[in-house]
Specification:
This is Integrating conjugative element membrane protein (TIGR03747 family). By secondary structure, this protein is an all-alpha fold. It has 2 domains: 116 residues; 88 residues, no CATH class. It is built from 8 helices and no strands. Helix 1 packs antiparallel against helix 5 and helix 7 runs antiparallel to helix 8.
């Protein structure tokens, strides 16, 4: 009786773990966005303080924000998720700006403080840079949402390729490696989430394809390795 219950308990634990992971995923992504905004603002402030950028004050953050919006306008004119990606992104960014900065009075205070000197001028510069960096990060969030089918496609291709490799190993009497399977399985989620975190936190403008395509390729590769190295007999 105990032998019959053990597999059932393991299967129930796996189902519970999968459901829990899917339930926590939106909250995890939300925390990643918040952490990315915090890291981006901190990097920008440190760069302004130590004069890392060629532009002075908040000009670097402003230019980076314009570059990211330019990628969105020119490269993401079509999407599988929404009919008009540019209008969708504009609505999201404008709504966030309205609630975060306009209604809170930060944007009005920064505009009224234009030309201020001393600590007031310094505070205005840092707040303005934080506003630009936040809007830039939100623009990148929209880009990630619009390119999410790329990661889904990479996962499907990796899973299919892994199943084929597993069947070849199964019928060809290939050796199993639990070490490879468990480590590849553990790397799938960190690669996905870490890729988001790094991309959202970069303090300079980068074309999305230069970062997202390698991340999607690595994501699909880990899924393929984990699927291919899964045990031959259940």
């Amino acid at each position: 009786m105990a032998r019959d219950e053990a597999p059932a308990q393991r299967a129930e634990k796996k189902r519970g773990g999968l459901v829990g992971t899917l339930f926590k995923l939106p909250f995890t992504l939300m925390w990643i966005v918040i952490i990315s905004i915090f890291c981006s603002v901190l990097i920008e402030w440190v760069g302004i303080y130590f004069d890392w950028f060629s532009q002075t004050g908040s000009d670097h953050a402003h230019q980076t924000m314009l570059s990211e919006m330019g990628y969105l306008d020119s490269q993401f004119t079509q999407s599988l998720l929404v009919s008009s990606p540019v209008e969708f992104a504009t609505m999201i960014v404008d709504t966030c700006y309205e609630w975060l900065f306009a209604k809170s009075g930060i944007a009005g205070w920064v505009e009224q403080g234009a030309g201020a000197v001393g600590w007031a001028g310094t505070l205005k510069t840092y707040l303005q840079a934080a506003m630009f960096v936040t809007l830039m990060t939100l623009t990148r969030c929209v880009i990630l949402v619009l390119t999410s089918p790329l990661f889904i496609l990479a996962a499907i291709v990796g899973f299919t390729d892994g199943l084929v490799s597993r069947d070849l190993r199964r019928f060809g009497a290939g050796r199993e490696s639990a070490f490879i399977y468990h480590h590849a399985k553990r790397m799938v989620t960190p690669i996905f989430l870490t890729g988001w975190l790094i991309y959202l936190s970069l303090p300079f403008s980068i074309h999305p394809n230069l970062f997202l395509l390698p991340c999607a390729l690595l994501f699909g590769l880990m899924i393929a390795i984990a699927t291919a190295s899964f045990k031959k007999y259940l």
